[in-house]
Design goal:
- The chain is an alpha/beta fold.
- It has a single domain (about 1-15, about 25-185), classed as Rossmann fold (3-Layer(aba) Sandwich).
- Helices cover about 30% and strands about 30% of the residues.
- It has five helices and nine strands; from the N terminus they run E-E-H-E-H-E-H-E-H-E-H-E-E-E.
- The strands form two sheets. It has a seven-stranded mixed sheet with strand order 5-4-3-6-7-9-8, with helices on one face. A two-stranded antiparallel ribbon has the order 1-2.
- The chain is globular.
Length: about 190
């Protein structure tokens, strides 16, 4: 069971994606992640992009904590439907125009970047995703970032550090059990 931890929608339970094709971010990881983001003032007013969104929990948590808008990108139909359901569930708290759900492959979505640029980006790809594929996604993402943006990549602790494209610099990483979060900023 996933939930919104804090903010205007804090305590609300989210629908999870059925089956074993997605891996929800645990509350412990989410709490640590968002505590750090709030301390860095990276959320308030941000344009958020949640790639490989699953249930949309990360993008929706950011909205609950003060982000301006979130776009949830998920290629699997069942997961995209769950993102839409969760967005509707939180509409009264977050506002009707706060969430956009796009059912398409991440690389296709990034081929036409948002003209405003993204301030905060979450990438939580399937752990089995090959590193070269993740490197391609990061390279496509780089031109779509706003100045001062923050990118957070969630991977297994068994995965190597992502291959960062030119213009995207790693700034730190944190380990939580089987999960490692990698943070990067535009150079």
């Amino acid at each position: 069971m996933s939930r919104i931890i804090a903010g205007v929608a804090g305590g609300r339970t989210l629908t999870s994606v059925p089956g074993d094709h997605t891996r929800p971010t645990t509350d412990r990881v989410k709490e640590s992640l968002f505590s750090g983001l709030e301390a860095a003032d990276a959320i308030r007013g941000a344009l958020v992009l949640d790639l490989f969104a699953g249930s949309g929990a990360l993008g929706l948590e950011a909205l609950s904590r003060g982000a301006r808008r979130a776009t949830l990108v998920e290629s699997a139909r069942r997961a995209a439907d769950v993102c839409r359901r969760n967005a509707r569930l939180l509409e009264a708290d977050l506002g009707p125009a706060a969430v956009r759900v796009r059912q398409e492959k991440v690389a296709s979505f990034l081929a036409t970047p948002d003209p405003h640029g993204w301030d905060l980006v979450f990438l939580d790809p399937p752990y089995p995703m090959p590193e070269p594929e993740l490197a391609t996604v990061l390279a496509l993402l780089r031109p779509a970032l706003a100045e001062g943006a923050l990118v957070v990549v969630e991977r297994s602790t068994r995965s190597p550090e992502p291959t960062w494209p030119d213009g995207l610099e790693p700034v730190r990483d944190r380990k939580y059990g089987e999960t490692r979060l990698w943070y990067a900023e535009p150079a």
